[in-house]
Amino acid sequence: MPRRTVFESVIERLEILAPDGAVDEELMPGLTDDQILELYRNMVRMRVFDDKAVKLQRQGRMGTWPPLKGQEAAQAGVALAMSDEDWLVPAFREHGIMLMRGVPGHLILAYWAGDERGSAFPDGVRCFPIAVPVGSQFGHGAGLGMSLGLRGEDAVAVTFGGDGSTSEGDFHEALNFAGVFKARTVFVIQNNGWAISIPRSRQTASETLAQKAIAYGIPGIQVDGNDVFAVYAATAEALERAHSGGGPTLIEAVTYRLGDHTTADDAGRYRSEQEVQAWSERDPILRLRRYLQARGLWDDTREEILAEEAAKWVAAQIEALEAMAPPDPADIFRYMYGEMPPNLEEQMRSLMEEVAS
Amino acid sequence: MTAQRARPEQAGDAGLRAVPTSSTEKLTIAQAVCDGLATEMARDERVIVMGEDVGVDGGVFRATDGLIERFGPQRVIDTPLAEDAIVATAIGMAMSGLRPVAEIQFMGFVYPALNQIFAHAARMRSRTRGRFYVPIVIRMPFGGGIHAPESHSESYEALFVHTPGIKVVIPSNPHDTKGLLASAIRDDDPVLFLEPKRIYRAFREAVPTDDYAVPLGQAAVAHAGEDVSLVSWGAMVRVCLDAAQELAGDGISAEVVDLRTLNPLDRETLLQSVVKTGRAVVVHEAPRTAGFGAEIVALINEHALLQLEAPVQRVTGFDTVFPYAKLEQHYLPTRERVVKAVRATLDF
After folding, report:
1. What is the pLDDT of residues B239-287, one digit of tens each?
2. What does the alpha-carbon distance between residue B299 and residue B257 come to, in Å, rounded to a whole number?
C-alpha cells in the first residue's frame, strides 16, 4: 500500500508592466495605442470620479462612499477584455468598471446618496446591481454563467469580490457550483490587502487566493492587480476559456486600497503610513503613464487636458445627480411586487396622506 | 438584458381562463407537485428544476420523479449540497431569463439560504426600481408529523411572511397544489412554495391533467359553516376539517377557511367568514409567539372586532424546539384541541 502523490498543482503570477513603466514585450497583449490611451483616460476618470465622490461625502452632499483609489487597473483591465454581451456582477467597490460598462456616473452616485433609482440602470447595460452583503453576489455570477450556457448565449458573467469575501461560505459554494457546471463565469478577486481592518493574512492561511481555485477543479491565476496589462491578459484568457465552453476561472488581482474602507472608516487605526506610501509608489495610473510617456504617447499637456476633461465630466455627473427630482415616497411601495397587494396599497395611501398634509 | 425587460407574460394570464377539465387523475399532493412541474416545464421552456437529489433520484419525496427522463439534465439539475448556492444560482438564472424552481430538501435546512432569500431575492425588484426582478419558486417540504429525524419538521412560514418581497404559498390538497404551483411559477416575483409533507401522500384527489392555475392571494372556504370560523393552512386544514366534522355531530356548524397564500393574504375571504360567524379559531403548527396566527388575530381585531361574539382563539405549536419523533404528537395541534378551542369561543 504505497503512499503517493495523487494531485499536484501550481499557481502562476502574471506581471507585464513594471512599476517603472517598462513592459515584458513577450507577454504584452496585442492592444492598439488608441486602446491603451483610452484605458489610461478611463483610469484617470475613475480616479477623479472617486476623489470627487469622497469630497461630496465630506461636504454632506452624499452618503457613505467606498473609495476605489488604487484599484483602477484591476477594474479597467477587466472591462477592456469584456465584450458588449458580457455581464458584470459587481460587489460594492466596482464603480470604475461599472462606469466602463456603461452605468451612468450619476446613477452610481445616486445609489450611494441613498436613492434606489441608482440601481435602475438603463436598458442594455449588462450589469447586476451593487451587492452589499459581501460574497453573496458570487452565486449570482455562477447562476448567470450557468444560465448563459443553458440558453446558448455567447456571453460570460464576470463577478467581482474582495479578499475578505473569499472567507464567506458563498465564495466556496459559488466556485464549487461554477466548477461542477462549467459555468461561463469569471471570478475576479480584488485582493486589496484589507477587509476594513483585517489584513489579508487573517482571512486565510493560503499562500495565495488564486490557489483556492484548485480545490474546485478550475484554473486560478494571480496577477499584479496594479498592472493593467496583466489584468487584461489574464481576463482575456479567462473569457476566451469561458466563451469556448472551458468553464470558469478565478483571477486574483493583487492590488491595494489606498483609501479608507469607506468614508466612515479611518484606516490610520489599523495600518501604517509606510505601507500606504509603499503602495502609492506602485500606483497603477502612474505606472501606465510612465509607460505611455516612455513611448512618447503622453506628456504634461495631454495630462492637463485630460484632467480638465475628466473634471468637466465628473461635474456633469454631479449636476445630473443633483438635477434628479426627489424620489417619490410612493416608490417605497410601488416596486415590491409585480402587482401591488391590498395591504401595500393601504399603507401607501396612508403614507401619501401623511406626506400631503 | 432584453429578456429580463420583456415581461413575456404576467402571472395567471393563462391560468385565469376557463379550464377545460376534460380529464382528471387521482393524485396525491406529492404527485400533484410533480405533475405541476412537468406541466409547467412542458408549457414554458424557461422553467427549470434544480436542487439536491431532484434528478436521478426523483426527489426524496418523489416530487420530481421522472422529470429528468422527460426533460433532461439541462433542465432538471442535480446540484451539489449547498442551499445557499442553490438559491443564489437560481437568482442569477432568474435575472437572466430563466424561471428556476429550486428545491430545498427540508425547511429545516433553509437557513444557509436565508441571506439569498432575504438580502437578494426579496429586495431585487424594489431596490432596482423594477429594473430587475426574480421569478423564482423555492419549494420546500415543511411541518412535522412523519416521525422524521431532527431538523426535518419545522414550520417557519412566519419568517418569510415577515420578509416583504416574497410570496408565501401553502397548498392543502392535490388540486390546489398543482394549480397554485402553476401560478407560483408564472409569477414574476419570488414565491416560497411550502409543501405540507405530513399530507404529501395522505389522500388522493382528482386533479385535472391539463394545465390550470389557482390564483395566488385567494383563500378558499374548504367547508362552509355558520357558527365559527376555523382559519388555517397546509396540513392543519385537514385537522380543521376533522374538527368541523366532529363539531357537526354536536350541531355546531364550523366554517374552515384555507388561506392557501399567506402573502399576499386574502383578507376579504377571512374577514367575510369571521363577520358571518362571529367567532374564530386560528390553527397553525408553527410556534405560537409571533406566529402568523397572531397577525390573523390582529387583522380580525382591526376589522371585525364589533362583530365578534368571543375573543379569537389560537391553537398552535408550542414556543419550543420541535420535539423528536417520540413526543411530536404532543406538539402538533389536534382535532381535540381545535374542538376545545371552538367550545371556548361558544361558551364565552
Report:
1. 999 999 999 999 999 999 999 999 999 999 999 999 999 999 999 999 9
2. 15
Closest CA to A153 of A84, A222, A60: A84
- Residue B262 sits in which domain range? 220-347
Q: Are residues B147 and B42 in the same domain?
A: yes
CA distance A152 to A290: 43
A177 contacts on B by Cβ (under 8 Å):
79-80, 82, 85, 89
Assigned C-alpha cell, A32: 492598439
- Which domain covers residue A68, as residue numbers? 12-326
Contact B165 A337 (CB under 8 A): yes
- Closest-CA distance, B145 to chain A, in angstroms, reads 32
Please state at what angle helix A300-323 crosses helix A105-112, rounded to 10 degrees: 60
Which of A123, A141, A331 has the CB atom closest to B129's CB atom? Answer: A331
CB contact under 8 A, A129 and B188: no
**CATH number of the domain that B72 lies in?**
3.40.50.970
Region of A182 on the Ramachandran plot (φ > 0 left; ψ -120 to 50 alpha; else beta): left
Cα(B6)–Cα(B270) distance, rounded to whole angstroms?
A: 36
Partner residue facing A143 (CB), from B82, B93, B217: B93
Whole-prediction pTM: 0.94
Q: ipTM of this model?
A: 0.94
Is the CB of A174 less than 8 angstroms away from the CB of B89?
yes
